[in-house]
């Protein structure tokens, strides 16, 4: 049995939990998420 996890849902889940517990981190989490998606998109690993 193999478990295959995608990166985007894990990042989204982590960001959602962090925002829930630390609302002041919202700006940093959104910025990091957008930068990560942009870099991965430029490298051809788009979601």
Can you walk through the features of this model?
68% of the residues lie in helices and 0% in strands. The protein is an all-alpha fold and 47 residues long. Helix 1 packs antiparallel against helix 2 (26-42). The radius of gyration is 12 Å and the shape is flat. The two termini are 25 Å apart.
Number of alpha- plus pi-helical segments? 2
Q: Cα distance, first to last residue?
A: 25 Å
Overall SS class: mainly alpha
SSE sequence, one letter per element = HH
Give the overall average pLDDT: 80
Compute the CA-based radius of gyration: 12 Å
What fraction of residues sit in β-strands?
under 5%
Overview features:
47 residues, mainly alpha, 2 helices, flat
């Amino acid at each position: 049995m193999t478990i295959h996890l995608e990166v985007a849902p894990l990042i989204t889940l982590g960001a959602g939990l962090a925002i829930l517990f630390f609302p002041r981190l919202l700006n940093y989490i959104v910025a990091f998420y957008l930068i990560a998606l942009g870099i991965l998109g430029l490298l051809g690993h788009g979601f």
